[in-house]
Amino acid sequence: MMDFAHWLPIIWGVILIAAISIYVILDGFDLGIGMLFAFERDQSKRDVMINTIAPVWDGNETWMVLGGAVLYGVFPGAYATLLPAFYLPIIVMLAALIFRGVAFEFRVMTKGTARARHWDLGFIAGSAIASFCQGAVLGGVIQGASR
């Protein structure tokens, strides 16, 4: 009988890479829409942009959660090295994603009022800040993370 135990880290590594890649692709689309939002002044086109991502935007973060859970559960050494090195950009990114989600929902609720503009700005800022933090984490990983 073959011993598959030596294949487990490789299998979980592929699952981790897949989860992170799917998150980057799918949520990259959402974050891109959020940043392009700043350059579109026509409210009807902004509504189309929002309606484009509305069915899937909140589900995309599930892939990030899966990636973090796999990193924590399967590769605790990597988790213990990466998270302390990137606490600040990760916490800021999570706060921006939460604020972005709140702005997304409240924008719809306040449509046509003066407050809708504020939620539009929150959606734009949350998207830009989250994207910047993801780039900072990726840059840090490429340069080499340390405590």
Automatic annotation (TrEMBL):
Query: What are the protein's UniProt keywords?
Result: Cell membrane, Membrane, Transmembrane, Transmembrane helix
Q: Name one GO biological process term.
A: aerobic electron transport chain
Its annotated compartments are: Cell membrane
Q: Which InterPro entries match?
A: Cyt-d_oxidase_su2
What's in the GO CC field?
cytochrome complex; plasma membrane
Q: Where are the transmembrane segments?
A: 6-39, 86-109, 121-142
Q: Give the Gene Ontology MF terms in alphabetical order.
A: electron transfer activity; oxidoreductase activity, acting on diphenols and related substances as donors, oxygen as acceptor
- Coiled-coil parts of chain: none
Q: What is its main location?
A: membrane
Membrane topology classification:
Multi-pass membrane protein
The signal peptide, as residue positions, is: none
Q: Which Pfam families does its entry note?
A: Cyt_bd_oxida_II
What NCBIfam families does this protein's entry cite? cydB
Homology family = Belongs to the cytochrome ubiquinol oxidase subunit 2 family.
What name is this protein filed under?
Answer: Cytochrome d ubiquinol oxidase subunit II
Q: Which species is the source of this protein?
A: Acetobacter oeni
